[in-house]
What we know:
The protein has helices at 5-14, 44-57, 69-78, 91-99, 109-112, 150-159, 161-164, 177-189, 192-202, 211-219, 231-238, 269-280, 286-292, 323-337; strands at residues 24-28, 36-40, 62-66, 85-88, 119-120, 124-137, 168-171, 206-208, 225-230, 244-247, 253-261, 308-310. It is of the alpha/beta class. Strands 1, 2, 3, 4, 5, 6, 7, 8, 9, 10, 11 and 12 form a twelve-stranded mixed beta sheet that branches.
Amino acid sequence: MRHACLALLLSLVTGVVQAFEIEESRRYPAPGGTELRILSTADADVFEPIIAAFQALHPIPITYDVASSAQVMTALYDENATYDLAISSAMDLQTKLANDGLAQRYSSDATAALPPWAKWRDRVFAFTQEPAVLVLNAQAFEALDIPKNREGLIALLRDHPQVFDGRVGTYDVRVSGLGYLFATQDSRNTESFWRLTEVMGRLNTRLYCCSGEMINAVAQGELALAYNVLGSYAQARLQDTPGIVIVEMDDFVSVMLRTAVIPQTAEAPQAAGLMIDFLAAMRLRPDLATATGLPPVVSGAGEDENVIRPIRLGPGLLVFLDRLRRDTFLRSWVSSIEQE
Length: 340
């Protein structure tokens, strides 16, 4: 199902309409009369504690549909699907919705309290900051040094092909909106990105749609390591999965901001605004950070960019969504990662 995402992403620029697909749908009843319909990339199990806490304050029914970031974009951009709130890890696609007039403006005391880097034009609102990390299988590294940065990772992969051939994982950026975002940001931040991609290509790197699948493969020993995994999901798995190691690279760590927008098609924008206010104030609910594994936005966290590099909201995210720029990037990536 996820492999349909390439066609869906391309529909942004070609105008071809594709039916979007929902991976999971859950309904949370409540005595209130106004239903809040959410379309989200976050797993339902991850987001469920937030919904329970929100309904304790605002007892309104909620429908929570899960889809990939590309499917979310297709639903809202191409099909004008009726949702009151869209939540996505693909900051660039959310920004495109807002930039192209498909997201409503919203402001409140809660959103005003967000750091300037965590919102854009009162239409896109960040509520988590989640790093891209390296996830390792501890057993595979019993006789190896754990790499601390990308240069070290390149050297490790080159020096031990017998260990890593077919046992490295990363996103298939053709089908993963978040994977594409992380890859394009890597290419901006370091000249090592393309050398690392070529080395991965020579090792028959396995490609995945999403972080959860990569983490499972590392935990089961199918992979020795996975690159650019969503750190929040990896941290959540640490609690009940022995044998995985999480590494934040010391050259730089890309930090994704999970964002929410109110689509123009929203039929319950006031309820959506209440949820945005609740999400914007998650820093005041450490219990939810523990329950979900989603680290909230914290003032000051975006100011030191020596190592931590929050991906900035704004029109700069649209650069790699340009069709020619995207096609060029994907051709180079495919040539590097799928060497024949």
